[in-house]
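Weekly structure sync, notes
Attendees: PL (lead), two postdocs, one rotation student
Agenda item 3: pending single-chain targets
PL asked that the sequence for the first pending target be pasted directly into the notes so everyone works from the same version. It is reproduced below exactly as submitted, 152 residues in total.
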Amino acid sequence: MRHSILRVARGAGAGLVATIPMSAVMLAAQRLGPVDELDPEIITETGLDAAGVEASESTQNLLSTLAHLGFGAGVGAVYGLLSPRVRRAPLLTGPIYGLAVCGASYQGWIPALGVAPPLSRRGPARRWMQILSHLVYGTVLGRLAGRSSRGR
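Predicted structure, written out during the meeting:
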């Protein structure tokens, strides 16, 4: 049990850290122009609207950032829990896991909740930005979580 808790904690930490370069890819796409509003912002705005909460743009930006980091940590925790099965090839399993998260989110729960259309029906710039950012997330996650599990 103790080892499972440590794996989850290590995965959460790795996921939190991996969200930072992922976000950098997303912000670069936004600044370069092919993507306007980022999905974490859209998800946060939709959630606030559904809850009937009025928030300033700066508050929405803060909440969006915190939610994205929290989601990254949570998804990393799941990866950590799975780490005994993926430990042998983290540089392969990390990116695959990142793409699986992208698919489950942007083809699954986000459209199911009516937040945004499936990624397959959105523009190519957004699709490539999501794929690349999730590959970056998964690569960093696999590297960090793999390093921490090998260090034991």
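Discussion points:
- The first helix runs from residue 2 to 32.
- The chain has a mean pLDDT of 91.
Action: rotation student to compare against the earlier draft before next sync.
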